[in-house]
Amino acid sequence: MNLSSTIIPKSDQLNSDSLQVGPLTIKVTAVKSGSSEQPVVIHYEGDEGHPYKPGKSMRRVLVGAWGPDSDKYIGRRLTLYCDRGVKWAGEEVGGIRISHMSELTEPFEIALTVTRGKRKPFTVQPLAPEQQIDIQALTDIGDTKAGEGKDALRAWWESLTPAVRTALKDKLPAWKEKAA
Prior knowledge:
By secondary structure, the chain is α+β, with helices and mostly antiparallel strands. It has helices at about 55-65, 135-150, 150-160, 160-170, 170-180, and strands spanning about 25-35, 40-45, 75-85, 85-90, 90, 95-100, 110-115, 120-125.
């Protein structure tokens, strides 16, 4: 049994605890205005109501790498990870950092503020181009897994990326029925 889904915190946004099991690559679907504390809300494929709300340092990375026009972010991808060393009010609380970004042809480096008056280089790597999803091949695999039963179908479904799940979500009810 994969316990990853049982440790996701209940929250209205993606947070560093959500990334304890590993990094997450997201595809941006919308960028909206938020509150004064969290002015940017990034929705992505499969966010399930938990958008990414980047802190000021990561907003600086986004603007530095992709420019200030958030309309151009739609369809672009980011890899997010939990950096346990992120400090808030002098305490290490952990936070979300960007490790990779699409649309980069070489590593992007920017100096970010670590403490008042102290800056440190931060590097983001290029993200490889997105692979096309072979819907027919995945449909065939889903049919096979459904024929093997509920446990096989569930294990396979949980191994898929959010983008693949979104592409196959219309097939899931029939697979569940077949697996039962």
